[in-house]
């Protein structure tokens, strides 16, 4: 039961972040949603979660590519017992053609943001006497693929940051872990299916199985609900001695 705890989830107006926010709210936590936009529908998501789960929910705009805004997000949240660093973007290109500004943006959003939010949140966790840092890495935090240099460097980096955070909090009731998802069916991934079907001249099932899930032995997408459930588990007492490690939710990807 997470009632009385406040969870801040970066990049949570869609996909995995939103799934995690919903699951933590259903477990009783007050939640702070975030992205870089400030639209009515962003705030409406928070209102919907508050109504469905019966918790407090807020949406705070902050751009995770900027260190000062990362720190301000935690400050504005006021409390941060559970920090979920989830905001992330992708760009696919060979290293010698990789746009410099894409490299910088991916390192900032997918890696440095977690440094800034963690730095701002640890003092609040220490004051509260309890804390959970959950970083959303990737199977690409443990293995590589071509053409995703910035993403893979950032995801390997966040696994390292997770380990360091765990060691610096090891004697306190605070844990830090990384979830490493394989392919998760989010709106972002769903949107790629029609293009892949056209490019490979395959039907939906075949393109999902043979192209998109080529490296996921289960041949099934993981779900945002499963990411939320894994995150909620890391917040239980059963997980109190799980720290500084990675949990793969990847249908066997990293066993290959
Ligand atoms: P998504 O695009 O649905 O979600 C990304 C979230 O980050 C969105 O809410 C977006 O608004 C937010 N975001 C982007 N730039 C931001 C910025 N500058 N400031 C604040 N928020 C920003 O994608 P997703 O699939 O849900 O991805 C979420 C996380 O999970 C990412 O870190 C991603 O790398 C990781 N992941 C996804 C998969 C997958 O298959 N979908 C697999 C492994 C890891």
Automatic annotation (TrEMBL):
For this entry, the protein name equals 3-hydroxybutyrate dehydrogenase
Q: Supply the InterPro entries for this chain.
A: 3-OHbutyrate_DH, NAD(P)-bd_dom_sf, SDR, SDR_fam
List, alphabetically, the PANTHER family matched. 3-OXOACYL-(ACYL-CARRIER-PROTEIN) REDUCTASE (PTHR42879), 3-OXOACYL-[ACYL-CARRIER-PROTEIN] REDUCTASE FABG (PTHR42879:SF2)
Under SUPFAM superfamilies, the record lists: NAD(P)-binding Rossmann-fold domains
Q: Which Gene3D superfamilies match?
A: NAD(P)-binding Rossmann-like Domain
Q: Which Pfam families does the record associate with it? A: adh_short (PF00106)
Its family remark reads: Belongs to the short-chain dehydrogenases/reductases (SDR) family.
């Amino acid at each position: 039961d997470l009632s009385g705890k406040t969870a801040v989830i970066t990049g949570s107006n869609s996909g995995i972040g939103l799934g995690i926010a919903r699951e933590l709210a259903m477990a009783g936590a007050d939640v702070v949603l975030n992205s870089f936009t400030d639209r009515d529908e962003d705030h409406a998501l928070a209102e919907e979660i508050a109504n469905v789960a019966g918790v407090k929910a807020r949406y705070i705009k902050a751009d995770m590519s900027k260190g000062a805004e990362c720190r301000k997000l935690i400050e504005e949240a006021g409390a941060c017992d559970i920090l979920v660093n989830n905001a992330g973007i992708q760009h696919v290109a060979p290293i010698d053609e990789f746009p410099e500004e894409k490299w910088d943006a991916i390192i900032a959003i997918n890696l440095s943001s977690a440094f800034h939010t963690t730095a701002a949140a640890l003092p609040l966790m220490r004051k509260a006497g309890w804390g959970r840092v959950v970083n959303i890495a990737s199977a690409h935090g443990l293995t590589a693929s071509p053409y995703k240099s910035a993403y893979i460097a950032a995801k390997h980096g966040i696994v390292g940051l997770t380990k360091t955070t765990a060691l610096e909090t090891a004697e306190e009731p605070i844990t830090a872990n990384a979830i490493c998802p394989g392919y998760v069916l989010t709106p972002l991934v769903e949107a790629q299916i029609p293009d892949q079907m056209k490019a490979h001249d395959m039907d939906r099932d075949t393109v999902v199985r043979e192209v998109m899930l080529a490296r996921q032995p289960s041949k099934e997408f993981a779900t945002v609900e499963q990411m939320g459930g894994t995150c909620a588990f890391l917040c239980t007492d059963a997980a109190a001695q799980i720290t500084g490690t990675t949990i793969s939710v990847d249908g066997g990807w990293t066993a290959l």
